[in-house]
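testing teh design pipeline on a random one, pls ignore if ur not involved
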């Protein structure tokens, strides 16, 4: 036998050994079913395919399936909250705090235990000038974790700012109780005595300014409001009041500058647009006033003062149907004061001063 044939025989035998080695991996049979990854004969494959799955594997499988189903169900909700939060941040960067507030509230509906989102709502309310709401939210935030240091510092600054204005010392609190039913003249006298001793008390200055406005003494009103603005130059209540005072003094450029100061902080300030509308009404620029007050109403459609200014602006623009529609909405408002009702009556003859 030639060497070549011997080699062929050897190779053939070696091939046979390899084929036999790859028979059924379970029982050793040489005949296996083709087309499968594992070499098994038909009988062994049938037996293994019918073997029951162990309970532990079933349990793990059910847990995994449950988590997947929960994630799929929760995904649209969490995505909605995340998108709202990002939109709120974007609006905040653009100083659109009305939009930011709306988006942060949506995010809070999905993540109502998030101290960070609650903090964002407080910041948005603050820049919208809703100080009463801010104070309520700050109280509710107590004990909540804020894990963002920058956010924590912002909330701390807002809290200190409002405390300096609206938290009364015991002496002023007692004085206000004593003069609660007195005439405006006596209130002015007593508050003046108090502020002479406490010249930097913001609330006393604010109250004196308001009392002088009621009496039509706008120079004195301006003097006391400036005391507050020196210490709190960004307080929107004070800025709107100063715009009104300067308007009545016919210092229109100065009045507008106070409104613009607010809009620099928040381009969506309904209060600033309403103040601008009242300035233009005073200057008999009725069309321009209409543009401003409609913007204000778009931003805050439940504000009674804005609705009253809108009705008045419609009146001066001879938009009687629109005016009456707003008046009907005002009449249904929950917070109508005697002054508001008197104001509504001035429209009965379709003529107001």
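output:
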């Amino acid at each position: 036998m030639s060497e070549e044939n011997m080699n062929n025989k050897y190779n053939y035998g070696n091939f046979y050994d390899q084929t036999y080695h790859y028979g059924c991996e379970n029982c050793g049979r040489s005949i296996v079913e083709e087309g499968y990854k594992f070499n098994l004969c038909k009988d062994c494959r049938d037996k293994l395919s019918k073997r029951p799955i162990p309970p532990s594997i079933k349990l793990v499988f059910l847990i995994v399936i449950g988590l997947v189903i929960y994630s799929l169900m929760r995904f649209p909700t969490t995505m909605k909250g995340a998108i709202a939060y990002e939109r709120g941040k974007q609006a905040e960067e653009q100083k659109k705090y009305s939009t930011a507030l709306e988006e942060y509230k949506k995010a809070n509906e999905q993540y109502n235990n998030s101290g960070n989102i609650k903090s964002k709502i407080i910041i948005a309310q603050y820049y919208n000038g809703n100080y009463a709401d801010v104070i309520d939210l700050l109280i509710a935030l107590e004990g909540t974790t804020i894990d963002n240091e920058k956010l924590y510092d912002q909330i701390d600054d807002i809290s200190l700012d409002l405390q300096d204005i609206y938290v009364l010392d015991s002496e002023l609190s007692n004085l206000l109780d004593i003069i609660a039913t007195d005439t405006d003249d006596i209130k002015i006298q007593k508050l003046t005595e108090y502020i002479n001793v406490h010249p930097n008390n913001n609330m006393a200055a604010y109250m004196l300014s308001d009392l002088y406005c009621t009496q039509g003494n706008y120079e004195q009103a301006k003097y006391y409001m400036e005391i507050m603005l020196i210490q709190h130059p960004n307080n929107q209540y004070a800025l709107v009041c100063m715009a009104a005072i300067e308007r009545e003094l016919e210092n229109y450029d100065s009045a507008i500058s106070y409104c613009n100061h607010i809009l620099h902080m928040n381009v969506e300030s309904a209060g600033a647009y309403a103040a601008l509308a009242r300035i233009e009404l005073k200057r008999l620029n009725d069309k321009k006033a209409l543009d401003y007050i409609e913007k204000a109403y778009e931003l805050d459609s439940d504000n009674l003062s804005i609705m009253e200014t809108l009705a008045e602006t419609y009146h001066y623009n001879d938009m009687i149907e629109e005016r009456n529609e707003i008046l009907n909405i005002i009449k249904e408002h929950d917070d109508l004061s005697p002054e508001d009702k008197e104001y509504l009556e001035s429209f009965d003859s379709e003529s107001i001063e």
